Amino acid sequence: MSTEPLPILEEGSHGAVSADEPDAGGPDQDLGNAITDPASAPPMTGVWAEVVGQEAATAPLRAAAAHASAMTHAWLITGPPGSGRSQAARAFAAALQCARGGCGECRECTTALSGAHADVTVVATEKVTISIDEVRGLISVAQTSPSQGRWRVIIIEDADRMTERTSNVLLKSIEEPPPRTVWLLCAPSAEDVAVTIRSRCRIAHLRVPDPEVVARLLTERDGIDPELALECAHAAQSHIGIARRLARDPGARKRRDQVLALATEIRGVGDAVLAAADLVKVSEEDAAAATAERDAEERNELLRTLGADDGGRLPPALRAQVKQLEDDQKRRATRHKRDVLDRAIVDLMSFYRDVAIVQTGADVPLVNASHRGHIEQVARRGDMSDTVRVLDALALARERLAGNVAPLLAIEAMLIALRPRVRD
Ligand SMILES: [Zn+2]
What we know:
Rossmann fold, 54% helix, mainly alpha, 3 domains, binds zinc ion, 5-stranded parallel beta sheet
């Protein structure tokens, strides 16, 4: 336990920025003072070492962890998928708990990073929305003092999955948190979060790191061969988690190659329909494999908690709870399936982006350099208007999937659009 003075804020204070109206400038206000000056923030070492390529964006977080005067009770960490939002949030939580400001080695740091710290609550939902009850639970956690750490930190990794009504429940707690409570919300962009919430948060905006930076991380930390690391970093479009999976799992690289091959293999409607059925089947198998074991464990755990684990019939009063869990699990599997399909669409988009680059002769590196032959083949058989048409169809399919259209229908329509256009 540290004997250093704790940077305790006044009740309801917004720290150093409270002198200004916290929501005066809206979410995009420029906090251009010492707090955002990277020069005044501690270096990107310790817990920050893995938040690659985000020196400027994380400067306010690092400064806040180091100087009490730069602290704020509510933060919104934004950035596109793969930019490392949740990594940044956990690093910040660790830096707040660590007596040395985020050494990366002590118990406070390691438990905060892994999500096991008693005073760091991480909400990483796999459901489509975060329920109002979950948020109420978090609010009561937020009211309690830290049990051992310096701060009570609550991280909501998908703050964009809260409905307006749920956001309003959270609002009060974010406005007037207890003195040692810190809320860290993560979302793709500030606009994904209710305006009432985001106007009360300081915003740290992460960007997509360069593929070279991601490749270096894979090489240095995971011992991946530099050439493979760079290829995978490009293919994953700098999404660190996906790049790592591609680099480590030849099966994942093969599945991605198969998706990209659709661009040249689909000649007619028949091919498209067959390929769509395949793709949806693969996503279902993937979802089943990823969730089956966990579903069973969770069910057993719940039954144990309810005192009904002897395999007997469940009393009617408890059935509702089991039903609730099963519904949650079903939603999680649905989301996983959609994520797999979404990833396939994003991969195809990167292929057609490369086709457009070849067609325009732009001097930009290809995302899928190892598929150059096929990219050039597709580039030659059509023109830019064909490429744009396909990209539109891919974007539409993503939208439809997100909007709960039956996946098979959305994917079929999309793949039919990949057919070479018959020229007259
Ligand atoms: Zn530490």
